[in-house]
Amino acid sequence: MKTAWLKVLEGRATLPQSMTERANMVEFADAHHVLGQMAVAWDGKVEGKLKDVLDNGLLRTGFDHRMLQFEMDRVERALAGSGIMPVLLKGGAYVAISSRAGEGRRVSDLDILVSENELAETEKLLRQAGWAFDPGVDNDYDLYYYRKYMHELPPLRHQRRRSIIDVHHSLLPRTSRIKINTNLLRDAAIPIKGRALRVLTPVDLFIHSAVHTFADGSFDTPARSVLELHYLLQELDEAQVSALARRAAEVGACMPVATALWMLADLFDDRTSSGVLAATNIKPATWVVRHALKRKLENVETAMIAKMLLFIRSHFLRMPLHLLGVHLARKAFRFLRKSTTQEDQQVS
Question: How far apart are CA 143 and CA 123, in angstroms?
Fold first, then answer.
C-alpha cells in the first residue's frame, strides 16, 4: 500500500489517475475493511463502476451496524436488573455515539468492558440469554488460561444468531509488560442517553484505540487503525487535546499514545499530533518499531520482515516468554493430535 492512499481514502486527496492504481487502492480498501469509510468520504463525488463498488461497501457496513445495534439491545436485556452497566469498546462505541470513526466501519462483534468483580455475573447472565463459548475453547485448559492470564473471557457466540461478544475486564492481558489503569478509564465512562450502556470519554476513546493498535497485537489492520485514530483525534476539542498527554501518563499509556501521535503526524501531516508531542515528554516506540509499522502499512517487499518483527514484539509485550512457550507448545501439540486423528478417520 502507498501511504498516500490514506489521504485519498479519507477524501482529502484526489483519486489516482491510473485506472490500475485506482483499482488496486479499492481492492486494498476492501481487503482491509475500510471500503465503507472510503464510501462515506466520497459519497456523491464519484459515479459509474466506482460508485457501485462504494455503494456496495455502504450496504455491507449498514448491515453490520444494524446487527451491532440489535446486539446492544440484547446485552441490555440480558443484564437488566443486575446493576451492571457495561462500557462499549471500539466499533460498538463509535456506532452507538455516531462518531466519525464509526461511519462506514465494518464490525464483526461487540466488545464490552465490565469490572472484574462483575465478570462472573456478566458471564452467567449472557450464557442464560443464549451465548456460549465455542467448543474449541470450552475446555478446562483454555478457560483456565483466559481466566488466569488474559484481559477478557473467551469469545461468547450466540447459539441462534451466531453473533459474538467479547467481554473484557481490562484493556491488556494480566501479564502485559505495559500496565494500563483500566479502572480509571472505566470509572470515567459516560452513560449513553437512553441506554443502560456507557462509552469512554472522547480522550479515553483515543487512548484505548492507541493501546489496542500499538500495545496489543501486531498492527493487524493498519489502514483501519490509523484512520480510526485520525478521526478520533479530529473529534477532540482544544481542551481535550491539551489533556491528552496528561491523561495518557495518568493511565499508563504514554508509549502507545505517543506512537499514535507520531504516526498521525507523519502520515497525515497532522499539526495537532506533532504539537502535542512537541509540547510533552512522552516518547513513541523505538525507531526500529516505528520503521516496521510504516513498512507494514506500505506493504513493500520488506514487509515480511516488518510483520515478523511486530509479531514477535506483540507477544513479547503480552506475556513473559516462559509462559508463552508453554502455551504455544500445548496449542501445537493439540493441533497435531487433532490433525492425526482426522487423518486416521479418513483412512478408516
Answer: 12
* CATH code reported for the domain at 69-200: 3.30.460
Secondary structure (DSSP) of 148-195: HH-SBPPPEEETTT--EEEEESSSS-TT-SS---HHHHHHT-EEPTTS
C-alpha cell at 157: 457466540
DSSP string for 267-310: HH--HHHHHHHHHS----S-HHHHHHHHHHHHT-TTHHHHHHHH
Strands of 22-80 (E only): list them.
none
* CB within 8 Å of 201: residues ≥ 6 apart: 188, 189, 190
Per residue in 78-136, pLDDT tens? 999 999 999 999 999 999 999 999 999 998 899 999 999 999 999 999 999 999 998 88
pLDDT at position 281, please? 86
C-alpha 96: how far from chain center: 16
Other CB atoms closer than 10 Å to residue 31's CB: what's the count?
12
Amino acid at 122: T
* Strand ranges inside the chain, DSSP E: 87-89, 110-113, 131-133, 156-158, 164-168, 190-191, 198-199
> CB of 38 within 8 A of CB of 29?
yes
Dihedral angle sign, alpha carbons of residues 80, 85, 86, 92: positive
Of residues 338 and 225, more confidently modeled: 225
8 A C-beta contact, residue 236 and residue 257: no
Residue whose cell numbers read 493439540: 334
Grid coordinates representing 169? 475486564
Distance CA 281, CA 260 (A): 15
Domain boundaries, the chain: 69-200, 201-340
